[in-house]
Amino acid sequence: MSKVFTITEGLENMGALRTGGQGSVYKGRRYGPIITAVKLLPTPIHTESTDDKNFRNFQNEVEKLKKVNEEPNPNVVKILNSGITESGSFPFIEMEFIDGPDLEDLLKPPHEPVFTIKEIIKLADQLANALSHCHKVSVKHGDIKSNNVKFNVHTGNYVLLDFGLSAMSDDQRRTSIRHAGAIEFMAPEQNEGLMYFQTDVYSYGIILYELIAGRVPFPLKDNGETARTAVMLAHMELEVPDAMELRRKNLPESWTEEKRELEMMVPSWLLQILSKCLQKDINNRFASGMELQDALVQGSIGAINTSHPDDAWNSDVLLKENERLQGLVLYYQENEGKQPAPTVVTAPDDPRSVRMSKPIFIMFMILLCGFTVFSAVVMDKFGGRIYHGVVNRLFKPSKKQQDTTTTQVSVPTRRDTQEQKPSIKPLEEEQNSNIPPEVDSTTDSILRNIQRIKKRNQDAQFYRDSVKKADTSNLNF
């Protein structure tokens, strides 16, 4: 493409991107593959001197714009350069070239006439971030509209462009707005050439309204003076139409009924922000982009302002979800109340089961352990006595029988046994006439075994005593 005119040395003019009464935007290229966007302002500056009021104002505003890029922001276009064109003496601002469609194109066919709720919230957050970033360095944009917000196809971000009005003087701005400005996006005070932070907030609200409803609240029918005046008066005097009613009418017919109902559930906090941005009085709007961004953050996380109950999330989605969760809580509470209490000893279905509380069971185990220890101590000290006492109590052996048994040293012969039986048996029968035969024989056997053990112990002790007393001094081995 042939050059229209020379912008400045080293910057090639590649043709107009957009022209208008507030200036034209050209596609520029520096030596190499770097592509930029050049904004030319409509009022020429013939002398680059501080004595020229227009040049001085331009330089002051450009210095403000440079502050915008002191901290990088993905939602604000980068200002690369500024100066005066070599031909025509027009002031220009060179900016980063954003490759992608603008919002005006995204709302036209073949695209849908309205944005989805997800995309609305994304753009609202990123555009508020851009405004907050500019207002922090005291830069007012003044020309926020749908074709000054671009979608960067390489990063997926929405970027705020064209700071042309920011670089104009008040007189230039007033003349430009009155004759060539995008009147559908302008705040009421801009008709008088005034510009505040709240002015950008109002234009932000118009863009948000357009995304929700599918069109601006007061469309411009034609570019005639009468139509422009009608739109200007509407911004100043008329109530804003219901955005949700327009959204229902503009929903795409290609969407399913389920999706249409889902996309009608715009969060109430977003509608509250929209209403506040579009107030006629600047004092009733958000004071700046920073305050607007804070409101978006609080709304997106569901924060509730106790002093303003209407700011709470009260959308149908949250109400239905709340009812569902309450039903689940009641269901689990009822089921928990129906569960039987756990038993300690046996299963509850056993008819022989014994239910015992935990404290009683612990006390019972302590007593059982104490009784066991006490029994062990008693048996250790008095076990022998108790045993002999029980034996003597049960069997009651006679003294004569014990004496007779102890005097026996050798095992009697069969003949002696036969001779002794007649003499012993009458005595046993006489003394133990009341003892059963089986007990008598058992007792006799036990006593004989005891005597044998005693005899064995005595013989062993005798042998040991004899060895100790023996004189072994003369023994030789």
From TrEMBL:
GO terms for molecular function: ATP binding; protein serine/threonine kinase activity. Residues 399-444 are annotated as: Disordered. Residues 11-297 form the Protein kinase domain. Residues 432-444 have a biased composition (Polar residues). The keyword tRNA-binding does not apply. Keywords: ATP-binding, Kinase, Membrane, Nucleotide-binding, Serine/threonine-protein kinase, Transferase, Transmembrane, Transmembrane helix. The chain crosses the membrane at residues 360-379. It holds the Pfam family Pkinase. PANTHER family: MITOGEN-ACTIVATED PROTEIN KINASE KINASE KINASE 20-RELATED, SERINE_THREONINE-PROTEIN KINASE NEKL-3. This is Serine/threonine protein kinase.
